[in-house]
Amino acid sequence: MNDAPSERYLKGMETRRAVLGDAHVDRASGLATPFDQPFQTLITEAAWGTVWSNTHWTKRERSMVTIALLAALGHDEEVAMHVRATAQTGASEDDIREALMHVAIYAGVPAANHAFKIARAALAERSAGAAKPETPEERT
User: Fold this and answer.
1) Does residue 133 come out as left (phi exceeding 0), alpha (psi in the -120 to 50 range) or beta?
2) Which residue spans of the chain are classified as CATH 1.20.1290.10?
3) H/E/C letters for each residue in 35-96?
4) Do 140 and 43 form a contact (C-beta atoms < 8 A)?
5) What is the DSSP letter of 1?
6) What per-residue string of b and e applies to 6-24 under the rule 16 or more CB within 10 Å gives b?
7) pTM exceeds 0.85 for this model
8) Which CATH class is domain 57-140?
9) What percent of the chain has pLDDT over 90?
10) Which of 36, 62, 99, 119 reaches 20 to 30 Å from 109, CA-CA?
């Protein structure tokens, strides 16, 4: 059996590092166990190596869509992680606000209201240079 990482995996790790930063990816990789390593491989190849590596949209555009989707679905820790990642993707605070305004109209005001609180805290954290401890949900 070939244990060498696939080209898609290598591309995914490159993109994942570019978006989330080396510290985050090193931390997430270090937390992987034999139980969840296949999941880590799946998200690295599919989410990062395929979707995020596609060149049709910019990383900025992908950030805005991702934040809106995660907020609409109520995935709070992932919203915070992707808001922090906008430092690497080029999505501005205005972009984040507009994505969350869409959430209010298309997914509901309560979802957007909650996501605004999360985004505000993540942006304040990022501007203060604080490194918030990662939750298990943020290992992706």
Assistant:
1) beta
2) 57-140
3) CCHHHHHHHHHHHHHHHCCCCCCCHHHHHHHHHHHHHHHCCHHHHHHHHHHHHHHCCCHHHH
4) yes
5) -
6) eebbebbbebbbbbbeeeb
7) yes
8) mainly alpha
9) 85
10) 62
